[in-house]
Amino acid sequence: MMNSHDTQSSTKSATAKRKFSTKPLMIAAASLALSAVALPAAASSWWNANPSISIGSASVNVKNKGARGNGSHDDTAAIQAAIDSLPNSGGTVVIPAGRYMINAKKALRLHSHTRLKLDSSAELRVIPNSASRYWVVKVWNANNVEIVGGSIVGDRASHRGSSGEWGYGINVSGSQNVLVKNVKVSEFWGDGLLVGATGSGRSLSRSDYVTFNNVVSSHNRRQGLTVGPSKHVYIVNSTFKNTKGTLPEAGIDMEPQDQGPVNKVRLENNTFSGNHGNGIELHANISDITITSNNLTGNHGFGMLAISAPHMKVANNYATRNGLAGVGLSGSTHDVAVTSNKLQYNSTRYMSPTVNGGAKSRDIQIGKSTYSISQSNNTLSPRK
Hints:
Layout lengths: L24 H19 L14 E4 L8 E5 L1 H9 L6 E5 L2 E5 L5 E2 L4 E5 L3 E5 L6 E8 L2 E6 L2 E3 L12 E8 L2 E6 L2 E3 L4 E8 L6 E9 L2 E3 L4 E5 L2 E7 L2 E3 L8 E5 L7 E7 L2 E3 L6 E3 L3 E7 L2 E3 L6 E4 L2 E6 L2 E3 L6 E4 L3 E6 L2 E3 L19 E3 L4 E6 L2 E2 L4
Parallel strand pairs: 1-3, 2-4, 3-6, 4-7, 5-8, 6-9, 7-10, 8-11, 9-12, 10-13, 11-14, 12-15, 13-16, 14-17, 15-18, 16-19, 17-20, 18-21, 19-22, 20-23, 21-24, 22-25, 23-26, 24-27, 25-28, 26-29, 27-30, 28-31, 29-32, 30-33, 31-34
Antiparallel strand pairs: 14-15
């Protein structure tokens, strides 16, 4: 569970019901014409795996600011100096191959219109600390930011403290138009990735239009990715695996609850495997969530579990050999369509995955308090 300090789908196009009175024919015709014009925009997709991000033209190499990348020197100040040296119009911070040690209690803070570009062999690694809360890269209250390439590695094996669960690799909060692409994040004391909000109440600033494309988040303690108050979050072509250490231990967890809403999130063509909790976990205060064409395999809990989570579309996913059911809907979960999924040979904590057959509940479980749940064209394990 996040706190407010940290926090921080194909879109369903709502078609309003129109009531026509006996007004003059000309007015009715004009209304129909306006409706026809509005339809294409309403039907358009908001998500894009490679969105256009406005990045400044300047460029700086962190080694020109004193970063060494030798695996022992503290390069935090040098990399931050490179970031801060860019003009207000932004630019690209280049991190060549090497291991750059980072004091995550200070964090690297990115500004608007900035790209952090890591060589594929570049690694940002946390200097072991005892803090219950830390960050490697913070994108807070910024817009038009890219983080591309390389690896970001935490200190879970060498962490010097035993309390807390809030050590983050990348934390995007209260920011807009952010792309994280081709990045590997692993071994964090808390979450590999987090997207959410800054502030609270009337001053809550949710992140908007955040894309994670071809990201691998693995072997973090708490979550692969936490989604807090935000909207227009697109997670595509990515892998969330082997989360284990402190609950909930999910691949992705959407748990905004009373911190603020989450809406318009799309999870597409991702892999969730080996997580000690659920592959995907969802809670209250979310809406317009699409989970499509994902592979959920070998998670210790459910492939996907919704706990009092409303307004979702779960379609064309493949869930197999998860410890509990492939899809679980519980609590007051409602307004969910489960369509054209292949859910087979799950509930392996209770039966062998090699045994053909079993009750429907092996693969999909729907609680008694749920409502407005529709199921169609799902392929389940064959009955005995």
